[in-house]
Amino acid sequence: MTLLAAAPVRRRWMVAYALAMIGVAAGWFGPIQILLPEQAARLAGDGGKEALLAVVTAWGAAASMVANPLWGMLSDRLGSRRPIFVAGTVVGVAGLLTLSAANTTPVMVTGWILVQVGLNGPLAALAALIGDRVPEQQRGTVGALFGVAQIVGVILGTAVAVAVGDETLGYIAVAVAVPALGATLLIINREGAVVRSSKTRLRWPGGQFVWAWVIRFLLNLVNALVLVYLLYFLSDQVQVTDAATWVLVLTVVNVLFAGICGFVGGMLSDRWERRKVFVVAGAILLAAGTTLMALAPTVPVVLVASALVGVGWGAYIAVDMAVITGVLPDAETRATMLGVANIAGTLPQLLAPVLAAPIVTGLGGYRTLYLVTAAFALVALILLPRLKTLR
């Protein structure tokens, strides 16, 4: 399959691409931050809301992990990204509308599974478009947009949910925002001539892809472990009086630093034609931030640590997609393998609570948790030389 375009993508294409990714992220994280927790509290009450939310999000995460590579495989077989983008968006919107009317646990679970399965379609298409349309010298910039737009989508989805102030209307508003933000890209994106072969076979990826996958998994696991028990860490270890407010403060600090550093880093990586230095900086800063959280759990230090983690995460997402798309086995299975690569971002969300819970409750507490988290970042750093072709 040939979908490559040697010409640089224009600024308007980048804007449309970023808007589409913001829409997908808003559909994902708007419900997670506000709407799903409120709905779980309404259906299960204060005594069962945590358990219900855990069940709903676990089913959704499991479905997401399977859906992304399947959407990618279907995209490769069709030889086109547009049908996958549209079909997935339709399924995701149907899930959001199902959630807007959910008054029972089974309907809530079904709605969230539909959202996760559906929105993985446009996510898979957007990831593949970087390899299809973006030349190597622009992949840092566009790849950074892919990551930064997800951060903006978190803020937008949460802001919409808060501004509407009603659970049902919140889901409907997000359901409208997702396709509206993706429409421009569908209009202006032109897919090149596609040669689809029914004889295409998925080849086992080379070592470069495997090591890039492992590094992506480890750094996403670091990010997930930082966030998973942040509320409890602040209340129990740092002993702040209003932990929820401090979670918001730290999230804003983290997001601002990650977004700015991610976008600037992506442009610099293209200008310098270097990717590895940003992964090195990201891993070191993530390790430094989590080590500070482990050794000095005070408000000023945690604020500094949050900024370091934000800068580190931004440095990594600046080149994440450029690294992954640069080590794909071949063009004919691009979307499929990017779907496999995206598991490295989804799986840590499932594993983080499993790993963190026994450490926090019986194996040394939060100090041990964040030291182990720092160790994961350093392991990623140690593995980086395995990417021999990475500049």
Automatic annotation (TrEMBL):
InterPro entries xref list: MFS, MFS_dom, MFS_trans_sf
GO cellular component: plasma membrane
Lineage: Bacteria, Bacillati, Actinomycetota, Actinomycetes, Micromonosporales
Name recorded for this polypeptide: Predicted arabinose efflux permease, MFS family
Sequence intervals crossing the membrane: 12-31, 51-71, 83-103, 109-130, 142-163, 169-188, 209-232, 244-265, 277-296, 302-328, 340-360, 366-384
PANTHER family membership: MAJOR FACILITATOR SUPERFAMILY (MFS) PROFILE DOMAIN-CONTAINING PROTEIN, PTHR23528
Taxonomy, superkingdom: Bacteria
Short name of any one Pfam family annotated for the protein: MFS_1
Residue stretches making up the Major facilitator superfamily (MFS) profile domain: 1-391
UniProt keyword S-adenosyl-L-methionine, yes or no: no
Record GO terms (molecular function): transmembrane transporter activity
Keyword Transmembrane helix among UniProt keywords: yes
Principal localisation: membrane
Subcellular location per the Swiss-Prot or TrEMBL entry: Cell membrane
Membrane topology: Multi-pass membrane protein
Organism field: Actinoplanes derwentensis
Keyword annotations from UniProtKB, A to Z: Membrane, Transmembrane, Transmembrane helix
